[in-house]
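Re: the request from the purification team.
They wanted to know what the chain is likely to look like in 3D before they choose a buffer screen. I agreed to run a prediction and write the result into the notebook, where they can find it.
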Amino acid sequence: MSGDAQATGTFTTEGDAWRFDGALTFDDAAAVFGASQGVALPAGGVVDFSRMTRADSAALAVVIALKRRATAEGRTLSVENLPQSLRSLAVVYGVDDLIG
């Protein structure tokens, strides 16, 4: 899960959590999500978005897909520091209960 964190965001493992760095938009959501599929979910069940530089509604789709993956694997996944703009968008779309 590497790449230019400013152009296309990446998930990196920090301790027992994942941290997202960079952008997560329509332009790169499929690549970012695809890269995450080959890696075990974070041991601590936390994904931190405090270093997200840019996002649009595609970021919500990625978060929801990661949460569904965790459920399918019998795990829980907690989302931390998701930008308020995305949380507000989740409310508008009626998916706020899916992102936690």
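For the purification team: The longest strand covers residues 46-55.
Please add any questions underneath this entry.
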